[in-house]
Amino acid sequence: MRFFPYDQPYENQREAMDRIHNSLHRGQNVLFEGACGTGKTLSSLVPALEIAREQDKTVVITTNVHQQMRQFVAEARAITREESIRAVVFKGKSSMCHIDVGYEECQALRDNTRAVVDAERDRDQLERRQRELLAESQDGDGSAADARSAVMDELEDIEERLEDLEDQNVCDYYRNNLTQDTDDFFGWLFEDVRTPDDIYDYAEQQQFCGYELLKEGIEGVDLVVCNYHHLLDSTIREQFFRWLGRDPDDVIAVFDEAHNVEDAAREHATRTCSERTFDSALDELADTDDPRSEDAANVLSAFHRALVETYEDSFGFGDRESITENWSDVPIANEDRKDDLTLEFLQRYSGSGIDDDLEAAMKLGQELDEQYEEAYREGETATRTECQTLQAAGFVSAWMAEGSAEGLYPVVSVTRDAGTDEIYGRAELYSCLPRQVTGQLFDEIYATVLMSATIQPFEVTGNVLGLEDVVTMAYGLQFPEENRRTFAVETPPLFSSDRDDPAVQEDVTETIHDAVRMTPGNTLAFFPNYGEASRYADRLERRSDRTVYLDEPGESVEDLRKQFVADDGAVLCTSLWGTLAEGVSFDGDDAHTVLVVGVPYPHLDDRAEAVQEAYDTAFDGTDTGWRYAVEIPTVRKTRQALGRVIRSPEEVGVRALLDRRYSRSAKSDLGRYSVNGTFPHEEREELIDIAPDKLKFAMRNFYGGHDEYDGEPPAP
């Protein structure tokens, strides 16, 4: 409890901390589901810090949600008021760089700057030595004169080196890191928990590179707050642990919003290469006199032509005109043979051997990359050129070597350039099995806690992420049950084939209208997609006197949220797959009722089918893929949306699921399309099946029994 910063834990919080402490002490992994009000962050962080203190380890707490990052900083600051810990918040270089250069440029600038500073220090030492020897020689020491002559020769060499270095690119901020006293910075850094913005501003005032100083300062700290990619990307993780001065077994990782780890890991494992990279690589090779350029161009141009031909052949009547700025997939996978792009590539390639040509391209690309590096170091170029040949050849090598590997799915996509109206494509090796990324991570580190309000079913999460030796725990809503109602409203199932049915639309609209009218305040309404949100927003505007807000793609979500919460009695229509469905709280009077309309299954494209097939194969089950890849993530999204309201013990609210598939009674006749059984047991117990025309009466009675109505509730 020395790391617990408040007077008393919430109900069940002490038990959760004890169980997590015991599990971490044994080096076990923990899957921890806790509803709002459970105090998940401190329940995980406090025992992790205790184990880290006992066993000399570092706690890394990570999230992909900005609001949660701010919450972690607040909790860490509260802890430092009670117990001294060294904590830092770490972000990527791009968000902290004062001169806005890429990673390769930054590395070259650092090397050049360090070389200049080292040469200047050598010069200063030699100048001091020659002055000393001059004084000794003037006092009659003959050997001093000879020694001084040798020192002067060294000084001349150093001056020549410095003249050569003058034309090289350097970073003045990093130069100050190396030449000025930085003790005050580190004293300031660990006085409190500083955010990356704090560090950027402080370093800017002192003309330091805050990012490099932060890297120097994190060695051996107690706590680091960071983004997912610092752990999920194996290359970044290796560097990150080196900066920490820790082996993987010295790290305790805490993942927040852990239901997102699956998609994040899949994203980190996926490799892509666009047609424009191949264009640039071929231009690069055309400007190269190296004899290997012909073989390299031979193999890369064949893959480039095959990529273009593959997506061009896929276009039917009107398809080309319908391409937008968003990437659209072109199916190329085949069950009984290689994918269409590989077949087209093999047909178009003519040469002595693909492997030999790719090897030539890789070696030439590496040499070109070294030349670009040297040119930037020497100040011959203002920016550090990236070698496109190396990138293209590396991708084609991976495509040929890994294209048929387990869990990798080949895809071609196309998009339209908004500026030129040009259509171009990309090839992609899409990763279907997240455990190929996370399994290695969890094997390496000491232990981890994965926490979320929607991480159940635990067995599925463990299987998908490759977790072993797992302890599970779940705590439901700790707030008074009399302050909430959760309804499964038996409106018609919104199957995609029925959504355009006028009778279905009328039934759903009437039910939403009833719910909005009976709510003493704002209502959140989540739909399967933005199109459905727009459809029902229009219908509600025609029927209701309440203000209707519509969340649309590309619009500022935060501005819309501020307008909505400042209103009273409004309704906000949005997609359940949008940014408002999780990580955004609607506290107090921001919203009292939340509706989830329909079962928001994702778009079941070829990628989704590939993931299902990969799960079926990996976990030996005919329906495993559907359950793991579609049904469970969909219900998790629904549960996340329900959690946007009732965020404290005092809040009163209604949560309603508008679709018969959520009801208990639907299981007998809807079979696999019923999702009631996918909810955790304790949440199913709270679901009250209700007919659409009865919802208004139930809501009127519920809200009427609380102080939410200032006067007489509206008539049903």
From TrEMBL:
<dbReference type="InterPro" id="IPR014001">
    <property type="entry name" value="Helicase_ATP-bd"/>
</dbReference>
<dbReference type="GO" id="GO:0016818">
    <property type="term" value="F:hydrolase activity, acting on acid anhydrides, in phosphorus-containing anhydrides"/>
</dbReference>
<dbReference type="GO" id="GO:0046872">
    <property type="term" value="F:metal ion binding"/>
</dbReference>
<keyword id="KW-0004">4Fe-4S</keyword>
<keyword id="KW-0479">Metal-binding</keyword>
<dbReference type="InterPro" id="IPR027417">
    <property type="entry name" value="P-loop_NTPase"/>
</dbReference>
<keyword id="KW-0347">Helicase</keyword>
<keyword id="KW-0227">DNA damage</keyword>
<keyword id="KW-0175">Coiled coil</keyword>
<feature type="coiled-coil region">
    <location>
        <begin position="109"/>
        <end position="168"/>
    </location>
</feature>
<dbReference type="InterPro" id="IPR006555">
    <property type="entry name" value="ATP-dep_Helicase_C"/>
</dbReference>
<dbReference type="InterPro" id="IPR006554">
    <property type="entry name" value="Helicase-like_DEXD_c2"/>
</dbReference>
<keyword id="KW-0413">Isomerase</keyword>
<dbReference type="Pfam" id="PF06733">
    <property type="entry name" value="DEAD_2"/>
</dbReference>
<dbReference type="InterPro" id="IPR045028">
    <property type="entry name" value="DinG/Rad3-like"/>
</dbReference>
<keyword id="KW-0378">Hydrolase</keyword>
<keyword id="KW-0234">DNA repair</keyword>
<dbReference type="GO" id="GO:0051539">
    <property type="term" value="F:4 iron, 4 sulfur cluster binding"/>
</dbReference>
<keyword id="KW-0408">Iron</keyword>
<protein>
    <submittedName>
        <fullName>ATP-dependent DNA helicase</fullName>
    </submittedName>
</protein>
<dbReference type="GO" id="GO:0006281">
    <property type="term" value="P:DNA repair"/>
</dbReference>
<dbReference type="GO" id="GO:0005524">
    <property type="term" value="F:ATP binding"/>
</dbReference>
<keyword id="KW-0238">DNA-binding</keyword>
<keyword id="KW-0411">Iron-sulfur</keyword>
<dbReference type="InterPro" id="IPR010614">
    <property type="entry name" value="RAD3-like_helicase_DEAD"/>
</dbReference>
<dbReference type="InterPro" id="IPR014013">
    <property type="entry name" value="Helic_SF1/SF2_ATP-bd_DinG/Rad3"/>
</dbReference>
<dbReference type="InterPro" id="IPR042493">
    <property type="entry name" value="XPD_DNA_FeS"/>
</dbReference>
<dbReference type="GO" id="GO:0003678">
    <property type="term" value="F:DNA helicase activity"/>
</dbReference>
<keyword id="KW-0547">Nucleotide-binding</keyword>
<dbReference type="GO" id="GO:0003677">
    <property type="term" value="F:DNA binding"/>
</dbReference>
<dbReference type="Pfam" id="PF13307">
    <property type="entry name" value="Helicase_C_2"/>
</dbReference>
<feature type="domain" description="Helicase ATP-binding">
    <location>
        <begin position="1"/>
        <end position="303"/>
    </location>
</feature>
<keyword id="KW-0067">ATP-binding</keyword>
